[in-house]
Amino acid sequence: MHELPNSLLSARRVAIFLLSLLVLAISCGGDSGATLRVMAASSLTQAFEDLAQAFEAENPGVTVILDFGGSQRLRSQLEFGAKADVFASADPIQMDLAAAADLTSGTAVDFAANTLVVIAAQDGQVSELSDLATPGVRLVLAHGGVPAGSYSRQVLQNLAEDTQLALGDRFDDDVLANLISEEPNVRLVAQKVALGEVDAGIVYQTDVPVAQATGEVRVIPIPPAANVTARYPIAALRDGLEPELAQAFVQFVMSEEGQRRLKEHGFGAP
Known about the structure:
The chain has 270 residues and is an alpha/beta fold. Helix content is 42%, strand content 23%. It is built from ten helices and ten strands. The strands form two sheets. Strands 2-1-3-10-4 form a five-stranded mixed beta sheet, sandwiched between helices. Helix 7 runs parallel beside helix 8. The protein starts with 5 loop residues before the first helix and ends in a 6-residue tail after the last helix. The model is unreliable at 14-31 (pLDDT under 50).
């Protein structure tokens, strides 16, 4: 029987040693290398980037991939086969539609709340609510099919119906007559106002810092009686590739730590 040369024996020992290390890493790694895909409403961008980073720190080896957009667009993408593990919507309507399409796993839970404000270009024509109805004002809103757009139109109707404000019962119609652009998500509304491309828009309270980081804007509060409370639900998705991680992420968002981080970004309690 011929003996193998020492060089071949050494190479074989190195290969066996490296293979053993690989097997050990796989067996001990748990969720190491796992990727969690999260679809979330645009208004959650900064908050969920923060939450994702904290979740990754608590789960070494896990990578969270975030996809932001209008809730309606994200839900539609899921219906057409897009793959994700978690869906966080800016309103219950889109979540209910996702559940009706059998996209969600378990029951969605509300994890945050938000309100609306008017923002106006610093050098524009709008300095108070009544100015929104002035002919020639350039207004931008989120598209009516996404939560921010639906909420904005409800606020305008509420303002028109509030007799104490004396804005007039056609206030909403007069304001919408000034609408020159409907955006697919609320972040684009904030951006257009901050860049001075339009005079005013309606955004979430949490979008104000984003707009101010882009340019100078006026913030015009909406009276509480006419405002709306936006509810944000979250759910794991039925066809997600990481169901256990998805549930863990939802639990993290609902945890004391997750709620603290959401509050730091301006969101209210669910």
